[in-house]
Design goal:
It contains five helices and 55 strands. It is mainly β and about 750 residues long. The chain has five domains: about 220 residues, Cyclophilin; about 100 residues, Sandwich (Immunoglobulin-like); about 90 residues, Immunoglobulin-like (Sandwich), CATH 2.60.40; about 110 residues, Immunoglobulins (Immunoglobulin-like, Sandwich), CATH 2.60.40.10; about 100 residues, Immunoglobulin-like. β45 and β46 form a beta hairpin. The longest helix has 12 residues.
Length: about 750
């Protein structure tokens, strides 16, 4: 039986095909490339390019019990030589990888990938092997049973030839039908040697579209070393299986495992593996391109994690980084201010310092008051506030009005992401009562206006900090309560003399009457005490005036104005605000010409009150007639801004008696332009002498003497006992002329105006 099997072997397979390249070509010729590019240079010997780290994973620190960290590895690493799709050939002799020339041979690579995607390269065989020349596949499926004929792969349409790359050792090229350059479908072959001189030109050149990478040629060469048999007669084929490699074939039947089979898939350019030096602390796992770092519960420490990135060509790089798992952020110290103590009611500041935050997860710092006084931060303690802004340091400011006086403990704790609390730090700070003034006195009582005196603040208590200053104020708005920013500061003292702070005060401008003063103390901790008070009377100095003056002192004519004014007015502690003027009358309110007593009393008539600057008052003698030919007395008194009244001053005004005028005459009383007219009148003055007598023509013809309108026609001369004026007729107007005559005395008083008429033809 054994002899029979050997004879069958010889009949079916013959002897292995010799190594020389084919000359005529089998039904499926070998596909070639068009030219040589660096990516497809001879592969042996070949130095692998290293994988580059483009973006290393940085050392990191995370909080204890943090959620797992996911790191995306995409884009962090690269092998610059692998610039196309990677095809993986999983063969019965081992796996190897092929780099496809996607960009340079787009049609061929797309066709090859389509067969992969459609699964048509699954469980296929190497159906031809020519020593030192090629191994060929991609045409047949491995049979499922013994002695079954390999199935033909269903093909897509033929593709355009893309020659240009040389058929060098280690390259993969498309097979095609002889005499038809554009006939490639599914079959391909690997060049076992430099076949460029043969295949680059044959049948339009065979399209090289990839190359074996890494140590893959050891697998390819192993396949080429498998024994070959001529199985055409066994399968009834013509040249398809004349060089069929079969593994461990010892006789019939031909079993499925005797074929060199394979599956072709695509794989990523890079694959990853990861190790952790302390996997209990940091458990590192991979899911595709995602690296997950999970942290052990309640553990702290560090672990070295190494991500190994391996390229399809076998090159790799290790990216090593340190992961530290630390406790939550913590506060090292709490600082309280102001120092050395805070006054009850004063604002207090707590500042967290020496903060440890290795993970950068600090979200905020919380501050508490040890409300139950047990020295521990617990649920019964009062949250005073929190600060989530690191600018300027983590601190809060709060009022101490509700805190007990004495020693108080305060806490600060850091809060990390996810409300993870760090340990609390604490500080003890003293809350003390505010400083105070025990008593306040004035060195003088009552206090004269515009004087200097002292305010004495005694019994000063400083429980929190040394004295900075004692300030003294006057109750400006008079409400009896100290109002910051309203009541005016009048003095200050920064030291004590025999336990007393002395404020030197000037009373200028103080209100007349009762004045309230305040004193309050400020310590060097910035705390103000309550105000202490004292009320003292302030006296007012009355204003003074030296004299009252009348202008004119002699009234020329009844109805003339008289101006009254005061001089020498002064108020030493304020200012004069009004002046009153009175007329010396016997009965108040009467315009009496009757007798007066010459003294200022309640019967004297208030004739004016002036509050404007200068205090000048003017009245007309027609409104309040003087007694003609006698002297009248007028009084004045001044008031200051506090109601003080000056002494009364007086002045006398004399009323001039007007001159008299009688018996006006004209001779003749009619004439023409050449007539000479003589005008005359008798005049006298009871309290003086006549200064002049003047004649006027009624210029506007209204029959009334208007001294400022009617024209003066001449001044009379005193002749004998009359005042005489001689006038030529040419100075008069034609017709009737009304002539007025008026006498003037030396003081300037005027007589009554009299009239006469003269006719000019």
């Amino acid at each position: 039986m054994l002899t029979r099997i050997k004879r069958i072997h010889a009949a079916l397979f013959g002897t292995p095909t010799p190594n020389p390249p084919p000359t005529g070509g089998p039904p499926s010729d070998l596909v070639a490339s068009a030219g040589v590019i660096p990516a497809f240079d001879p592969l042996e010997p070949r130095q692998l390019l290293a994988v580059n780290i483009l973006s290393p994973i940085a050392d990191t620190a995370v909080s204890q019990n943090s959620a797992a960290t996911v790191v995306n590895l995409s884009g962090r690493y690269d092998n610059p030589e692998l610039d196309g799709t990677i095809a993986r050939f999983d063969t019965s002799l081992g796996a190897f990888h092929v780099l496809l020339a996607n960009n340079a041979r787009p049609i061929t690579v797309a066709n090859f990938l389509r067969y992969i995607t459609e699964g048509r390269y699954a469980d296929t065989i190497i159906h031809r092997s020519v020593s030192n020349f090629i191994i060929q596949g991609g045409g047949f499926q491995r049979p499922a049973t013994d002695d079954a004929t390999p199935g033909t792969i269903a093909t897509f349409g033929a593709i355009q030839n893309e020659p240009g790359f040389s058929n060098l050792r280690g390259t993969i090229a498309m097979a095609k039908v002889g005499g038809n350059a554009n006939s490639a479908t599914s079959q391909w072959f690997f060049n076992l040697a430099d076949n460029s001189s043969n295949l680059d030109n044959q049948n339009g050149g065979f399209t090289v579209f990839g190359r074996v990478i890494g140590n893959g040629m050891t697998i390819v060469d192993a396949i080429a070393g498998v024994s070959r048999f001529n199985a055409d007669s066994f399968y009834g084929t013509n040249g398809l299986f004349s060089d069929l490699p079969l593994r461990e074939f010892t006789g019939t039947p031909i079993k499925p495992d005797n074929f060199v089979s394979m599956n072709i898939t695509t794989v990523p350019e890079l694959t990853y593996s990861v190790t952790s030096s302390n996997s209990d602390l940091v458990n590192a796992t991979l899911d595709g391109n995602n690296l997950t770092l999970a942290y052990g519960a309640n553990l702290t420490g560090s672990s070295t994690v190494t991500v190994r990135t391996t390229a399809a060509d076998g090159s790799f790089v290790d990216d090593t980084f340190l992961v530290s798992v630390v406790g939550p952020p913590s506060v090292g110290q709490v600082v309280a201010g102001p120092q050395p103590a805070v006054t009850s009611g004063q604002m207090m500041t707590l500042t967290a310092t020496n903060i440890t935050d290795l993970t950068g997860s600090l979200a905020k710092v919380q501050f508490f008051h040890d409300a139950n006084g047990d020295g521990l931060l617990d649920a019964e303690d009062t949250l005073l506030g929190e600060d989530n802004a690191s600018k300027g340091g983590y601190s809060i400011k709060f009022g101490t009005a509700g805190l007990p006086q004495g020693q108080n403990r305060f806490f600060a704790r850091a809060v990390g992401a996810g409300d993870v609390f760090g340990p609390a730090a604490s500080v003890v700070h003293r809350v003390v009562p505010p400083p105070s003034v025990g008593s306040l006195e004035s060195s003088v009582t009552p206090i004269p206006r515009n004087s200097k005196f002292e305010l004495w603040a005694g019994g000063i208590s400083l429980p929190g900090a040394p004295l900075k200053t004692v300030e003294f104020y006057r109750d400006t708005n008079g409400n009896g309560t100290f109002d910051v920013g309203i009541d005016k500061k009048v003095a200050s003292a920064s030291k004590l003399t025999n336990g007393v702070a002395v404020g030197k005060v000037a009373s200028k401008g103080f209100a007349y009457g009762e004045n309230t003063f305040f004193a309050r103390v400020l310590d060097k901790g910035g705390s103000w005490g309550p105000a202490s008070t004292v009320t003292v009377a302030v006296t007012n100095a009355a204003p003074t005036i030296k004299a009252v003056k009348a202008k004119p002192a002699i009234v020329k004519n009844v109805g003339d104005p008289v101006a009254l004014s005061v001089s020498g007015g002064k108020d030493t502690d304020g200012k004069i605000v009004r002046v009153q003027y009175f007329r010396d009358t016997e009965v108040a309110g009467e315009d009496s010409l009757g007798p007066a007593n010459g003294e200022f009393d309640e019967n004297d008539e208030l004739i004016g009150e002036v509050t404007v600057s200068g205090f000048k008052f003017t009245y007309l003698t027609t409104r309040l007639p003087l007694t003609s030919g006698r002297t009248d007395r007028y009084f004045a008194r001044a008031f200051d801004n506090d109601g003080g009244v000056s002494t009364v001053v007086w002045t006398d005004v004399r009323m001039n008696l007007p001159p008299t005028l009688t018996d006006p005459q004209v001779t003749p009383d009619a004439g023409d332009l050449v007539t000479t007219f003589t005008f005359s009148a008798a005049a006298g003055d009871p309290d003086g002498v006549i200064k002049s007598v003047e004649f006027y023509r009624d210029t506007n013809g209204n029959g009334i003497h208007d001294a400022k309108v009617d024209k003066v026609i001449g001044k009379a001369k005193f002749i004998g006992d009359r005042w005489v004026l001689t006038l030529a007729g040419k100075k008069l107007s034609a017709g009737e002329n009304r002539i007025f005559v008026r006498a003037t005395d030396k003081v300037g008083g005027f007589s009554q105006s009299l009239s006469l008429t003269v006719t000019l033809a």
